[in-house]
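Late entry, written up from scratch paper. The run itself happened at the end of the previous shift, but nothing got recorded in the book at the time, so transcribing now.
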Amino acid sequence: MHTSTTPYCGYPPFRRKPESSIHNVLAPGFRRSDDTLPSRFSLPNNRNKEKGFTLIELIIVVVLLGIVGVMGASFISEAFKGFFDTDIRMEMYEEGKSAMVRMEREIHIALPNAVQINGNGIEFGVIDENSMANVFGQYTETSPSGSASITDRTAGLPLNTLVSIYNTEWAIFANGSRTYRVTSNGTNPMILDRNIGPASPYHRFYAVRPDAVRFTIDGTTLSRSTATVAAGATLGVFGGNQPLAQDIVPSNGLPYFTYDPGTSTRNSVVSIHFAISRNGEIVNFHKEVQIRNVP
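Output as recorded:
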């Protein structure tokens, strides 16, 4: 009996490629090779799965954000504090500058030798510059002592103008003995209210304001006050305080006011030193003011 068998081609039965195998049925794009299944039949790859945050990672992020937030808040706080401190210093500077300008302007036109330092304040008579603008300020008489008139080189002063002749110290100004009142009205020679005492060796006279001025520090307040000046009468009491600046303290331990009398070769000098202390900030002010010294 003859039995026909299929020739052995070298493939195991499970690896043989029949004509209608799955490899021929599937489209070419779905197969990788002759020896592997299509990728859609392969096992999933766990490495492609997305991972979440662990608790430790979240804690680290929260801590880092907290550190950044604290640093940012500190930076912003310091910036605002700098703006605030600058604003305070500018306010203090403007306040002190305004007070200094006011004092300098009036002290500069103080009557020669009519200046006194009194505790934490300075007192002085003031030249009436408005009245002096129309006259020369020197009389032509050789020695007017004992008479009641003087003749200016150009013009006369208005009625009731106060005139100082040869004031040599504060006490003389304060007792009014060398302060006179014009009783004529713009005439030249000028008629005075009484006979003239000692005459100026420089033939000088000055029109004087009817109010002397005092700048003083009372506690921590810098203020301005005035006193009435009258011909032949004692100086009035200072009053009518007008605050100029607050929170005043000494500057580097220096006195608020000093007065250096002049000589024949230089003017008198008033030195002003003070500071404003506010909210932990200090601004210092210093000024030297010259006063004419020809009585």
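The chain has a mean pLDDT of 85.
(Scratch paper discarded after transcription.)
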